[in-house]
Amino acid sequence: SPAFTNQKWYRQNWMTVEFGLVYRWHSALPETLTYDSKQIPMMDSLWNNEMLINKGLGPLFEETCSQPGSKIGLFNTSEFLIPVELKSIELGRQAQLASYNDYREMCQFPRVTDFDQITADEDTQRELKRLYGDVNKIEFYVGLYAEDVPQNSAVGALVTRMIAVDAFSQALTNPLLAENIFNEETFSQVGWEVIQNTNTLSELVNRNSPQQDKKYKVTFDNP
């Protein structure tokens, strides 16, 4: 992000409950995935290191990147992840987080005054109204993923802004980015050149995978 290009490293690491909830994109996981050209339940991939060991990092990345994820949002979470979603909502309540509308205001968005300002989906509007009655009572986690997603985006506007403000800034708390450490002396001349010339996830994966005739295709674009 250009906004953080010239920012200095700092020591404080304010890891927050909100930061954890912003990244709970459980609805992006479909019920099944393709592994070795076969459909398997997504549940079978949990804690299953053999999938990586048997296939290898490069081939697994390439096959995974060839598959579409599910739409991130309410009413689209796979059955096996529903208990995790419930725990996420419970966590927000236990931490006594402020409301969805309060976080909108904090992120310099206008507060919503009606349910149709959150989403154009009438079913979602009705369910939010039934459960909360008042837009000011909508919980942070629920409101985040009730929002409509702009075209060519994967998440709603509030999630996007919170990631830009919070998540990117967290990189600056990594000790390796301290001015007296992030230099050629620490990483060696070769290592420093590699760091300076690495720009994509694809480059990282291919550099750390046994080479084949062609590079592994690692991309977030899936036409």
How large is the radius of gyration?
21 Å
| Cα separation of the termini | 25 Å
Sheet of most strands = 2 strands, antiparallel
The structure class reads mainly alpha
* Poorly predicted ranges: none
Number of strands: 2
Percentage of β-strand residues = under 5%
What sort of overall outline do the alpha carbons produce when their principal axes are compared?
Answer: globular
Number of alpha- plus pi-helical segments = 10
Give the SSE string: HEEHHHHHHHHH
Major sheet: arrangement of strands: 1-2
> What is the helical fraction, as a range of percent?
40-55%
What is the element layout, followed by pairings?
Blueprint: H1 17-22, E1 32-35, E2 38-41, H2 50-55, H3 57-65, H4 82-94, H5 100-106, H6 122-132, H7 140-146, H8 157-170, H9 184-196, H10 201-207
